[in-house]
Design goal:
3 helices; 89 residues; single chain
Length: 89
Amino acid sequence: MPTILTGIWVANKSIIVSAAEINDSTGLGRLISEILGIADYIAWGGLIFAGASWMFNNRTVAIERGIGVTAGYLIIRKSWAYIQFLKGI
């Protein structure tokens, strides 16, 4: 049971972090916060799918999917931080 609760806590923590990063209280800030929350769930699903591929002995495809999901997730998450940094200059 602690493993399940830990997994749920980690999934919920990522949404809390994405909401805390956005300081804009306008409609655009809330929209981007929701989009980043959806991206969190899609990344979790992609990593679980890559793990299932690894489990069924399809390791090369699993590695490619895992790297692709991780790279895409980092690009999506950091793009908002880059925009806010450039806006502050």
